[in-house]
Specification:
Chains A, B: Its EC number is 4.2.1.20. Two copies of one chain form a homodimer. Chain A is about 40% helix and about 15% strand. Chain A is α/β, with parallel strands linked by helices and about 450 residues long. The relative contact order of chain A is 0.15.
Chain lengths: ~450, ~450
């Protein structure tokens, strides 16, 4: 019954983000212009992002200072708690020690505000008046809406139409924070109108929504675009998770043997793992790191490491990443935040360098793990986080078999308060597993740009 | 932009609950047997509650020790944060200092687990195997389901049928914790079958659900009944809120001039206010305390101080309280947790003693206040909590008019993650205010037992 919580004093909250680029043996492959196929520079990104973020995107300094104002807002929910999952350990009867970092304490309920607040800050600093973004399941959109409200920035969210209709509560949260939410494809953009002309009943896709958001941001000098994962600066902002965990485990007199994180675009995984992988890269301390992705969207485990577009329409720069092809449409699993065809280039690069291993799990296993966790620890995880829970439980059960008292750390990146339809469907036996045939994967990969 | 948060070290978490009965100039009126109209004793309550809780119900000791195991579970989310609402102060341009205690950090999202965990503990101690309760909106049911999961107790929840159908996500949360949830009226009890025989389409009521839960608990020797508000022991468990606030304000070098809490059954109000009212009763320190209730269920402001039943069917003991009559059916406002015809007898007694004042607010004002709060502070409050937010904002605006820099403390008793339909309806202009005519109130009061 014991609760073991490690709360870091505020004066030990990190004052810098950790930039793993500083510790790489070789830099990741260049980002290429979609037309010329030549490496792009900071100026090419200026219409979309403020220079403060672009400089972080290309920086190789190890420590990047967190502005005071961002630190002050972080303090509303940070340092987030690190728990020893004693009750889960008992339920599993494992000799392993399981620790979890809990990011669901943020006002928007996930790790996303770590970067949303930083992005809003740098945009505000440079005089930007409004932020435009896209959202699928809504975690990112509601986090940016929250951050925008704090900084007095207008926020415009293109929300994939099927989610807009099926997840009215996520939309309501964004609207409560004062954001404007538009179902995508919309009649407000050329991209949206073109889709609607051809497919009047289109239910949208993340790719289309990105195209709409980018179009609006690029043509409005007072607006900029914001992305919730994949890019280096987004991963950078999330490293507060791992940095705090390091300090909290130090309080516990412990260091992880195994770190588990779920992966979609890669940002929460990077957040928990990069500071530890950095120590490994610097030869200071070894650790085994495991990325867990859905079997229904297996970019790391079944994708190809190749140049591809970040969006479905092929408008973004080309980045080298593990991808299933930008035309890949993942199955309708409930972990909406993990349904992305590619992986953050920095995460992909580290997999190529052998710095972590990747595995995938089926949807039903993740929900079973989530309920086991909820009944033992009291927190209902988001479907995305259930992938990390399942990964951690598997490692703990392996420890049981082997009789090894290893130390496992995982990132519980968000709560499931907005995902109860998924749990309802799971408990009613309505959810399914998904598995792609080799042919299906090959067909999607055939669409990679040459 | 500054965040000002007061986190209490775990070693300063209260180790005792505060029992205000010890500081009363006169005890509250006796609880009467519904048949004999004679005062009841502890043994009369034994079929429904474990003796550990009954002893707390009638105790007059000032400090009642919190069992170690309960403290350990509290530590998962306690001490809860106390915030200085700087950004709200700025938005209101008030000289007042506004502090809020935030209870939404509990796994179930409100203050209810403070008592659910304690109740589960004492039942478990006495060998009880299952807990039976009722729930309206679902905050209480999900908190007891959470506590039951931790202690390995079965939890059976009779959920008012209209909520069961309209709020499937609250039900899903209870089921995720492993509770069994039954729509009330059900065919499982005599009470339920009697109602269904007469009204096959009955959508239920809290009163009917209480009757069903009490019936099941009373006839099953391994089961006990659990109530989420109103009773002395429930209010007692909530005093951790105010005790922590006292210590946190001490850290801030401050003491409230005004305390604001919302009232339904009275438990969150008691939690924040009783430790401060106690200091006033002991002549140590003065404070103005304001209870804010919905205009649609105005027991304190428009009810009568009289003996009445706790349930609609008239099966419970008679208690002296501010009541609108046990036959009163409040309007369908979204603050479901405040829709109760009566008030905790201890809270009523303190109002009679002039220890606090009561006011009521309309629904639309509470949602406007909630959105103002969400956009300034980033946390979306539950509709119930919006009543406290509205009360605090009104006090802060009065300070602005008067040019007084008073210190206001209020209890933000829960988040609104499960209440987004209410916000959606509010933003769509679909919500209404409610006001009862004097005749309507008089008619409800005419049903009071003689």
């Amino acid at each position: 019954m014991e609760t073991v919580k490690y709360l870091l004093n505020e004066d030990r909250m990190p004052t810098s983000w950790y930039n793993i680029a500083a510790d790489l043996p070789a830099p990741p492959p260049a980002v290429l212009h979609p037309g010329t196929k030549q490496p792009i520079g900071p100026d090419d990104l200026a219409p979309l992002f403020p220079m403060g973020l672009i400089m972080q995107e290309v920086s190789s300094e190890r420590e990047i200072e967190i502005p005071d104002e961002v630190q002050s807002i972080y303090r509303q929910w940070r340092p987030s708690p690190l728990y020893r999952a004693r009750r889960l350990e008992q339920a599993l009867d494992t000799p392993a020690k399981i620790y979890y970092k809990y990011e669901g304490v943020s006002p928007a309920g996930s790790h996303k505000p770590n970067t949303a607040v930083a992005q809003a800050y740098y945009n505000k600093q440079e005089g930007v008046k409004r932020l435009v973004t896209e959202t699928g399941a809504g975690q990112w959109g509601s986090s940016l809406a929250f951050a925008g409200a704090l900084f007095g920035l207008e926020v415009l969210v293109y929300m994939v139409k099927v989610s807009y209709n099926q997840k009215p509560y996520r939309r309501a949260l964004m609207e409560a924070y004062g954001a404007r939410v538009v179902a995508s494809p919309s009649t407000e953009t050329n991209a949206g109108r073109a889709i609607l002309a051809e497919h009047p009943d289109s239910t949208g896709s993340l790719g289309i929504a990105i195209s709409e958001a980018v179009e609006i941001a690029a043509q409005d000098p007072d607006a900029r675009y914001a992305l919730g994962s994949v890019l280096n600066h987004v991963l950078l902002h999330q490293t507060v998770i791992g940095l705090e965990s390091l300090a909290q485990l130090e309080m516990a007199g412990d260091y992880p043997d195994i770190i588990v994180g779920c992966t979609g675009g890669g940002s929460n995984f990077a957040g928990i793992a990069f500071p530890f992988i950095g120590a490994k890269l610097r030869g200071e301390r070894d650790v085994r790191v495991v990325a867990v992705e859905p079997a229904a969207c297996p970019s790391l485990t079944r994708g190809q490491y190749a140049y591809d577009f970040g969006d479905t329409a092929g408008m973004t720069p080309l980045v080298k990443m593990h991808t299933l092809g930008h035309g890949f449409v993942p199955s309708g699993i409930h972990a909406g935040g993990l349904r992305y065809h590619g992986m953050a280039p920095m995460v992909s690069h580290l997999l190529q360098l052998g710095q972590f291993e990747a595995t995938n799990v089926q949807q039903l296993e993740t929900f079973t793990a989530g309920l086991t966790f909820a009944r033992a620890e009291g927190i209902l995880p988001a479907p995305e986080a259930n992938h990390a829970v399942a990964g951690a439980i598997n490692e703990a059960l392996r420890c049981k078999e082997a009789g090894e008292a290893k130390t496992i750390l995982f990132n519980l990146c968000g709560h499931g308060h907005f995902d109860l339809q998924a749990y309802t469907d799971f408990q009613a036996g309505k959810l399914k597993d998904f598995e792609y045939s080799a042919e299906e994967v090959a067909m999607a990969l055939a669409g990679l740009p040459s």
